[in-house]
Design goal:
This protein has 188 residues and is α+β, with helices and mostly antiparallel strands. The chain is built from 6 helices and 6 strands. The protein has a 4-stranded mixed β-sheet with strand order 4-3-5-6, covered by helices on one side. The chain has a two-stranded antiparallel ribbon with strand order 1-2.
């Protein structure tokens, strides 16, 4: 690292990017990632150790946006039993999340009364894909791995931070498939 600093800022930046890329796939579970909350403060996923977590890429102007209602309902139903939802706004599909983090937060709280943790806007696919979503889509095994196809893709994580199931956008958060999987993990 000292050698890179002596070569100039560009090499230091390149070194940091290589280091970050290398840690993406060295991750052993979701607890290895820290991203900014919707308010901009660091929010490590390690803070969720011991909880069953549902990770969801969300958008405010999508046909699936009403799923916020079901997400909040299952969060309220299971949060006291050790369940958590983490929302990740993303503008990757049809520019359906164009707002700022402040606008997204206001929309979610006013229109859908969202109380579960929300992160700052991320990219879930493409060249600028955030390391967490690189891990979810590339370092996990099929059928969990694979590109994100649209907003409201859901990843279910066990109490040890391991991704155990993936639900595509058309599977609603309050569907029996999702709720039974949550309940099963909560009992473990």
């Amino acid at each position: 690292m000292i050698f890179l600093r002596k070569l100039g800022r560009g090499f230091l930046l390149l070194g940091a990017m290589i280091l970050m890329a290398g840690t993406t796939f060295a991750a052993s579970n979701i607890y290895d990632f820290t991203l900014p909350s919707i308010d901009g403060t660091p929010m490590p996923l390690a803070d969720f150790k011991g909880k069953v977590v549902l990770l969801v890429n969300v958008a405010s102007r999508c046909g699936y946006t009403p799923q916020y209602t079901a997400l909040e309902a299952i969060y309220e139903k299971y949060k006291d039993k050790g369940f958590l939802i983490a929302g990740f706004p993303a503008n990757n599909f049809g520019a359906q999340e164009p707002g700022t983090n402040a606008e997204i937060k206001t929309f979610c709280s006013r229109k859908y009364n969202v109380t579960f943790p929300m992160y700052s806007k991320v990219s879930v696919k493409g060249d600028d894909q955030t390391p967490l979503y690189q891990y979810l889509t590339k370092a996990t095994k099929p059928p969990i791995s694979g590109d994100i196809k649209w907003n409201f893709t859901k990843f279910l994580v066990d109490k040890n931070g391991n991704v155990v199931q993936r639900f595509e956008p058309d599977v609603t958060p309050d569907s029996p498939d999702v709720t039974s999987a949550i309940e099963k993990l909560l009992k473990q």
